């Protein structure tokens, strides 16, 4: 039957104990495992404890060494526990031959379906059996001839054995000696071989019957039939297919198949994770190619292309190390998964550490002349970190190797990479964990210390987020990687893999992916024509706008004029004409600051990808305009609120002279906002201190300008109050009045307010004069 694991349920009397001991001994000889041995006292009616133990053993073959009256109660309780069914087999002894005769209820008879039991071989063709059958039917004509079988024949032959023995004794010692028990004879002398109703009877020296053949009976549908005949040599001849509970002839397995609790390629969950992992690797490799192609971009150069590539490669290798864990591991695989993962982890975070340390060195210096650290020096430090880890791994592999080991339990099997030297193995792993843990803490510290540096280097805040995220994920990943719980092994693998995918994806997006998206979006913006805002070139647009200066304020009161930058030279068609200079304070205000775009006009995705950019901000009061746009090459960072920004103007002139006529460098677009549609907030929410926010009231588009300090914010605010609406973080706005060269124009009737802010009135400013070279500055700053 291919059964190699069974349970025993036996009555605790000489009969049951004798059979249990004999069976246990023989089972060892034929490699049959005894999963549980349960004995109950005679008279027991509650078998719950015994049945629960058998149920927990997983073997579904039960050897019953008891009596019919016990079997009736046991099967009733077993049915309630699901232990009677097509996948369970109950095997009894010859006492169960007349079990059906003792069951008055059909429900109990149905519970016996599929039961098997072993009894002596009955040869019904012998003269002794035929003589007994004829005598029985003559005496009891109304009874079934099936009664002349089983235990009845065994007892009949037993009586014949006793009769033959006493007959022999009387012939040897006489009747009187036998009746007086005055003769001395051995048991072997008493037992006489003979032909009985169950076949030829011979005896062993112990007095037991020497059984030459047995028959295995099968109960089904309220009848008993022979299924197999077994000889003394152990050969088994099938007489009929056994029928099990429910009518199935399929032989049940002794134990359900062991669950495979290690990841396999045939597992659907493993396949899904592998596909996701492969897609992420493809995305990262594509990102690395994109970075190489666009390596001349300013944003990429600022964040150091070599380190971006190393970080990306580290993320790819971390994901690749997960593939090594799938399937039956080999000895190299046991080492490779750990080595590849650890080196990849250090490629990512050692690179992040040295980048953050360089920023820390720059911004922590009291003298800027100390300078920063060159990339080749930082790469040397990364190599040193990985060199220390390489030494630890060499010791580990050479002195304390691990080997794949098959672990089998009653319910499952899986593979473990077990060390040859447990103490040395955990010592090396402990040092490795401590070394990399210190790296993570150091990275978090440096990132925290540099979180408020200049916006051009605000990468460190993302590095801090990545370090925190990895630390939280490691709380789940590390225990599931080091400890194996047999019933939870495969589930632990899936949980660990999902957390690993999330940690790697988040780290890549925080350190590299967001930069790739920003550059890609910038390219898309450059390639798109701003047809929705204006259809004319910058030169004609600015000419139309500013040539109306003497007549009144700008006609564009509803939306900011967004234009692409262009370079012109003196004498080119786009060159503005000079006017007379103005010395009125506050007529022109300009400077170069970090600026963050937010508010209206941004898509859902763009709201999460905006970063700070060094930007030129210029306000011309007589012309009624604020211009915000990228800085010219070589422009100084001089800022002015008095109309005398010499450094900026000189740089603008140099740029105009250097650029060829009609040159277009395809730089980012700028925005020109009429003062009549402008609001400002001197204390915007959600940004660092010393910021001033410009808001286009109709569209809600906003630009947050980070200045040098509260004094500079106050200076800008002083002049803006006279010409624009004041917006406060509490939701109020003052009305604004703008002036031009021709007089004062009120604009208090603006009803559209960005972000749901309200308005109140403020006094009108005094009239100011037109700057002599305002046209030139406006064209060069905005254009």
UniProtKB/TrEMBL annotation:
<dbReference type="GO" id="GO:0004965">
    <property type="term" value="F:G protein-coupled GABA receptor activity"/>
</dbReference>
<feature type="domain" description="G-protein coupled receptors family 3 profile">
    <location>
        <begin position="288"/>
        <end position="483"/>
    </location>
</feature>
<feature type="transmembrane region" description="Helical">
    <location>
        <begin position="272"/>
        <end position="293"/>
    </location>
</feature>
<keyword id="KW-0472">Membrane</keyword>
<feature type="transmembrane region" description="Helical">
    <location>
        <begin position="305"/>
        <end position="326"/>
    </location>
</feature>
<dbReference type="GO" id="GO:0007214">
    <property type="term" value="P:gamma-aminobutyric acid signaling pathway"/>
</dbReference>
<keyword id="KW-0812">Transmembrane</keyword>
<keyword id="KW-0325">Glycoprotein</keyword>
<protein>
    <recommendedName>
        <fullName>G-protein coupled receptors family 3 profile domain-containing protein</fullName>
    </recommendedName>
</protein>
<dbReference type="GO" id="GO:0038039">
    <property type="term" value="C:G protein-coupled receptor heterodimeric complex"/>
</dbReference>
<feature type="region of interest" description="Disordered">
    <location>
        <begin position="731"/>
        <end position="773"/>
    </location>
</feature>
<feature type="transmembrane region" description="Helical">
    <location>
        <begin position="469"/>
        <end position="495"/>
    </location>
</feature>
<keyword id="KW-0297">G-protein coupled receptor</keyword>
<dbReference type="InterPro" id="IPR002455">
    <property type="entry name" value="GPCR3_GABA-B"/>
</dbReference>
<keyword id="KW-0675">Receptor</keyword>
<keyword id="KW-1133">Transmembrane helix</keyword>
<dbReference type="InterPro" id="IPR028082">
    <property type="entry name" value="Peripla_BP_I"/>
</dbReference>
<feature type="transmembrane region" description="Helical">
    <location>
        <begin position="338"/>
        <end position="357"/>
    </location>
</feature>
<feature type="transmembrane region" description="Helical">
    <location>
        <begin position="378"/>
        <end position="403"/>
    </location>
</feature>
<feature type="transmembrane region" description="Helical">
    <location>
        <begin position="501"/>
        <end position="521"/>
    </location>
</feature>
<dbReference type="InterPro" id="IPR001828">
    <property type="entry name" value="ANF_lig-bd_rcpt"/>
</dbReference>
<dbReference type="Pfam" id="PF00003">
    <property type="entry name" value="7tm_3"/>
</dbReference>
<dbReference type="InterPro" id="IPR017978">
    <property type="entry name" value="GPCR_3_C"/>
</dbReference>
<dbReference type="Pfam" id="PF01094">
    <property type="entry name" value="ANF_receptor"/>
</dbReference>
<feature type="transmembrane region" description="Helical">
    <location>
        <begin position="423"/>
        <end position="448"/>
    </location>
</feature>
<feature type="compositionally biased region" description="Low complexity">
    <location>
        <begin position="731"/>
        <end position="771"/>
    </location>
</feature>
<keyword id="KW-0807">Transducer</keyword>
């Amino acid at each position: 039957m291919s059964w190699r694991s069974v349970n025993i349920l036996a009555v605790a009397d000489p009969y049951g104990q004798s059979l249990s001991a004999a069976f246990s001994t023989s089972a060892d000889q034929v490699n049959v495992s005894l999963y549980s041995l349960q004995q109950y006292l005679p008279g027991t009616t509650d078998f719950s404890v015994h049945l629960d133990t058998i149920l927990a053993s997983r073997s579904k073959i039960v050897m019953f060494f008891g009596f019919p009256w016990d079997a009736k109660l046991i099967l009733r309780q077993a049915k309630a526990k699901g232990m009677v069914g097509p996948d369970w087999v109950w095997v009894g002894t010859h006492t169960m031959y007349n079990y059906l005769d003792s069951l008055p209820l059909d429900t109990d008879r149905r519970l016996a379906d599929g039961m098997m039991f072993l009894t002596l071989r009955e040869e019904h063709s012998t003269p002794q059996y035929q003589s007994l059958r004829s005598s029985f039917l003559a005496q009891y004509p109304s009874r079934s001839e099936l009664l002349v079988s089983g235990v009845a024949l065994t007892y009949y032959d037993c009586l014949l054995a006793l009769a033959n023995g006493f007959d022999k004794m009387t012939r040897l010692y006489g009747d009187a000696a036998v009746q007086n028990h005055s003769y001395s004879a051995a048991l072997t002398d008493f037992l006489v071989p003979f032909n009985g109703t169950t076949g030829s009877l011979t005896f062993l020296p112990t007095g037991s019957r020497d059984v030459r053949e047995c028959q295995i009976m099968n109960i089904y549908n309220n009848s008993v039939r022979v299924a197999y005949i077994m000889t003394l040599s152990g050969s088994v001849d099938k007489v009929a297919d056994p029928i099990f509970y429910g009518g199935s002839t399929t032989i049940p397995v002794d134990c359900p198949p062991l669950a495979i609790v290690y990841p396999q390629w045939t597992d659907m969950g493993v396949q899904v994770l592998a596909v996701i992992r492969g897609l992420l690797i493809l995305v990262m490799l594509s990102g690395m190619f994109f970075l190489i192609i666009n390596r001349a971009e300013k944003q990429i150069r600022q964040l150091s292309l070599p380190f971006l590539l190393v970080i990306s490669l580290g993320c790819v290798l971390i994901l690749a190390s997960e593939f090594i864990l799938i399937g039956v591991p080999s000895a190299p695989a046991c080492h490779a998964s750990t080595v590849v993962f650890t080196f990849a982890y250090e490629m990512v975070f050692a690179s992040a550490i040295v980048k953050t340390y360089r920023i820390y060195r720059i911004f922590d210096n009291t003298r800027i002349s100390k300078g920063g650290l060159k990339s080749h020096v930082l790469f040397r430090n990364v190599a040193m970190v990985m060199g220390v880890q390489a030494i630890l791994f060499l010791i580990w592999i050479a002195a304390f190797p691990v080997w794949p080991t098959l672990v089998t339990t009653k319910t499952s099997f899986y593979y473990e990479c077990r060390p040859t030297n447990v103490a040395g193995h955990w010592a090396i792993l402990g040092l490795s964990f401590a070394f990399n843990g210190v790296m993570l803490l150091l990275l978090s510290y440096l990132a925290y210390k540099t979180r408020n540096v200049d916006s051009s280097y605000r990468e460190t805040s993302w590095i801090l987020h990545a370090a925190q995220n990895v630390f939280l994920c490691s709380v789940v990943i590390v225990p599931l990687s080091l400890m194996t719980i047999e019933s939870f092994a495969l589930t632990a693998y899936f949980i660990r893999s999902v957390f690993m995918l999330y940690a790697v994806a988040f780290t890549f997006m925080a350190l590299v992916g967001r930069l790739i998206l920003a550059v890609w979006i910038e390219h898309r913006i450059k390639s798109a024509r701003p047809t929705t805002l204006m259809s004319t070139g910058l030169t004609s647009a600015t000419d139309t706008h500013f040539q109306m200066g003497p007549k009144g304020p700008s006609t564009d009161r509803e939306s900011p004029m967004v234009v692409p930058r262009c370079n012109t030279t003196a004498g080119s068609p786009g060159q503005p004409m000079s006017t007379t200079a103005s010395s009125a304070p506050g007529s022109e205000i300009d400077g170069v600051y970090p600026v963050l775009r937010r508010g209206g006009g941004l898509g859902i995705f763009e709201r999460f990808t905006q970063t700070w950019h060094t930007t030129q901000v210029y306000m011309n009061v007589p012309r009624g305009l604020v211009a915000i746009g990228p800085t010219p090459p070589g422009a100084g960072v001089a800022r002015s609120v008095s109309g005398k920004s010499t450094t900026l103007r000189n740089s603008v002139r140099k740029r105009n002279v250097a650029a060829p006529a009609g040159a277009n460098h395809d730089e980012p677009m700028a925005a020109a906002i009429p003062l009549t549609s402008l609001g400002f907030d001197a204390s915007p929410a959600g940004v660092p201190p010393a910021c001033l926010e410009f808001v286009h009231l109709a569209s809600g588009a906003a630009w947050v300008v980070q200045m040098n300090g509260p004094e500079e914010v106050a200076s800008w605010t002083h002049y803006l109050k006279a010409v624009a609406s004041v917006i406060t973080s509490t939701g109020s706005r003052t009305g604004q009045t703008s002036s031009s060269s021709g007089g004062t124009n009120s604009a208090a009737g603006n009803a559209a307010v960005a972000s749901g802010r309200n308005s109140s009135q403020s006094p009108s400013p005094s009239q100011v004069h037109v700057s002599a070279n305002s046209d030139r500055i406006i064209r060069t700053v905005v254009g």
